[in-house]
């Protein structure tokens, strides 16, 4: 008479992988966002993406006073930014910067997910 035996690998404790930041803010972006959202009534900036431009997608920044159900909340250096749930996969791992030069002042997204962008730099494709 023989008995059946089964070899099972010993369970090792799972070490959680660090989560990749959805969006990081540069110090100049933090300062600009702070100046834009200060005021008597609390408001935050929601980062979204809309279909527009020659490459297909464009960043959309809107003021809001409340967080939607599936928005991702980014808090950094006392500033809060919301990322629209539909934009999460396109924005994941991006850095938001604020750049001023002689002719313009704008938020610039350094996005590792961008596969192609238009010549003017306003639209992109992931």
TrEMBL record:
Q: Name one GO cellular component term.
A: mitochondrion
Which GO terms fall under biological process for this protein? iron-sulfur cluster assembly
Q: Give the matching InterPro entries.
A: ATAP, ATAP_core_dom, Fe-S_cluster_asmbl/transfer, FeS_cluster_insertion_CS, HesB-like_dom_sf
List the PROSITE patterns: HESB
Give this protein's Gene Ontology molecular function annotations: 2 iron, 2 sulfur cluster binding
Q: Secretion signal: which residues?
A: none
Pfam families registered for this protein in UniProt: Fe-S_biosyn
According to the entry, every stretch annotated as the Core domain falls at: 23-121
Question: What does the function comment of this entry state?
Answer: Involved in the assembly of mitochondrial and cytoplasmic iron-sulfur proteins. Probably involved in the binding of an intermediate of Fe/S cluster assembly.
Q: Which family does the record assign?
A: Belongs to the HesB/IscA family.
Under which name does UniProt file this protein? Iron-sulfur assembly protein 1
Q: Which organism is it from?
A: Entomortierella parvispora
Phylogenetic classification of the source organism: Eukaryota, Fungi, Fungi incertae sedis, Mucoromycota, Mortierellomycotina
